[in-house]
Structures are given as structure tokens and as C-alpha cells.
């Protein structure tokens, strides 16, 4: 217990400044490591989009996607299913990220095509190329919080583009 006596109240102020304690601040060493962008993609997503074909044909798509993140090796397994009134596709892919480089494999069940994926990841953006024996496409994926945009632009085929917008419930 501290008791102030009259002589202590009238004591002279100290000659040096008194340090006032501050709130503790987080230092870089005490912050948790940022999660891998693939971890932010993990989960079930729903949405829609469009498929644009030659001959000015454009159809709306209904889509569902599942992403699984492998934290031990920065991998991502994905399955995307989309359908319109006349078209359906089922994409599956397994990729890994090393130093910003994305590599892996892909397959599409309805059209029985498959191949390799190579590309780059910068932050929450992936730019890649899917190559197979009979199908090649540029891919772009952007994830922001609970929204994801996926665009595929095939080369030398009747499909001009596939654009998908996904969302999911709060995390």
C-alpha cells in the first residue's frame, strides 16, 4: 500500500523525464505468418457466368466449385462444375505454387481432355496457361475475400470465352 504524506506531495519534480508506459505493439516477429493465397481459396463456392461461342452464341452458366488447400506443400486441388441449357463441363485440377510459379495438371470429364497448367501467382491473382493435346486456354483467377472471378480464353476452338463469378458465405 502506498501512502502519500504531506512532505511527499510537496517534493520537487524529478530531474529526468518519466517514461509513461504505452500499449504493447506487435512487432513483425510476433505477428502470425500470412496465410497462403491457396488457403484463402479453400472451400465451397457457388455462382454463375457465361460461355461465349462462335456464331454469336452466349449462354448463362450455373456453377459450383470446391477447392482444397494442401498447406504442407502449397498445393490446391479444385473441381469446378458448370452447366447451361446446352453445355456442361467438369474441370478438375491439381497445382502447386513455388516462389510464385504455379504448375500442375488439369482434366475435363465431359469432353475427355487433359493436360498441364503453368503460370504465375502474384498476391491473389493467378495467370496461367492450360495446355493439352486438343485444347489450350489462357486462365485468370482473382480472389478477393469471399468473391472469386475465373476467366478461361480457349485458343483455336468454337469456345471464345468462359467467365465465372463465385461467392461463398462469410468465413
Structural account:
It is a single chain. The protein is mainly β and 171 residues long. 5% of the residues lie in helices and 57% in strands. The protein is built from two helices and ten strands, in the order H-H-E-E-E-E-E-E-E-E-E-E. The chain has a ten-stranded antiparallel β-barrel. The longest helix is centred in the first third of the chain and has 5 residues, at 37-41. The chain is globular, with a radius of gyration of 27 Å.
Describe the strand arrangement of the main beta sheet, using strand numbers: 1-2-3-4-5-6-7-8-9-10
Which percent band covers the strand fraction?
over 45%
Structure classification: mainly beta
Given as residue ranges, the uncertain stretches (5+ residues, pLDDT < 50) are 1-14
> Can you count the beta strands?
10
Descriptors:
171 residues, 10-stranded antiparallel beta barrel, globular
Task: Give a topology summary.
Elements: H1 6-9, H2 37-41, E1 43-53, E2 57-70, E3 75-83, E4 88-98, E5 101-108, E6 113-122, E7 125-132, E8 136-144, E9 147-155, E10 159-167
Antiparallel strand pairs: 1-2, 1-10, 2-3, 3-4, 4-5, 5-6, 6-7, 7-8, 8-9, 9-10
Quick recap:
The chain is mostly beta strands. The protein is 5% helix and 57% strand.
